[in-house]
Structures are given as C-alpha cells and as structure tokens.
C-alpha cells in the first residue's frame, strides 16, 4: 500500500489540473497566436508561468486505484501489476484465468 500522503497529493494535483484547464488552454492559445503582438504573447506567457506548478497536466502520475502504487501501472485496467495478479488469483476479474505450467 502506498503512503496515504502521496495518494492525497496526487488527488490534489488532479483537482488543480481540472480547475485551471480552461485558463491554461486559453493562455497557451494566446501565447502561440502569431496574430497577436509580441508584447501580448509575452504577457500571456508570464500569466501562464504565474499559475500553480501542480496545475500542469504533465505533473500528474498514474497510480493504481486499488493500492496507490505508482509503478507498473496498466492504463487499461487502472491498476498495478501486483493488484491485478492478486485480484486475478482470487477470481475477481471476469475472464482472467490464472496461468500455470
């Protein structure tokens, strides 16, 4: 199980990304718009830099929904390999069969 503080920090980042998504998109569009003057584009870049760092989507990290583990994450299942194997061996994932040889 991951540290609760790390899981909560990731949830906080997700909330910030959602909160500032529209504002960030508008500022990025203004900063890359060639029709605007260089001063206006620079102001847009400065406003973009003033936003909280954790509101950037690149700072998000995928975590397992079951255990909170940040590594070995399967996007399709939204869980780590360890949680997946554990649930599969208990028969809680439909269609998944434990392999043995």
UniProtKB/TrEMBL annotation:
It comes from the Bacteria. InterPro entries: Ribosomal_uS14, Ribosomal_uS14_bac/plastid, Ribosomal_uS14_CS. Part of the 30S ribosomal subunit. Contacts proteins S3 and S10. Binds 16S rRNA, required for the assembly of 30S particles and may also be responsible for determining the conformation of the 16S rRNA at the A site. NCBIfam families: PRK08881.1 (NF006477). This is Small ribosomal subunit protein uS14. Belongs to the universal ribosomal protein uS14 family. Gene3D superfamilies: 1.10.287.1480. It comes from Paralimibaculum aggregatum. It holds the Pfam family Ribosomal_S14. One of its GO terms (cellular component) is ribosome. Keywords: Ribonucleoprotein, Ribosomal protein, RNA-binding, rRNA-binding.
């Amino acid at each position: 199980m991951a540290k609760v503080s790390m899981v909560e920090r990731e949830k906080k980042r997700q909330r910030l990304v959602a909160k500032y998504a529209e504002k960030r998109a508008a500022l990025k569009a203004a900063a890359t718009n060639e029709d605007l003057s260089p001063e206006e584009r620079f102001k847009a870049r400065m406003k973009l830099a003033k936003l909280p760092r954790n509101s950037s989507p690149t700072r998000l990290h995928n975590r397992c929904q079951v255990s909170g583990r940040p590594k070995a994450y399967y996007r399709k299942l939204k869980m780590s390999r360890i949680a997946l194997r554990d649930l599969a061996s208990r028969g809680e994932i439909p269609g998944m069969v434990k392999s043995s040889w």
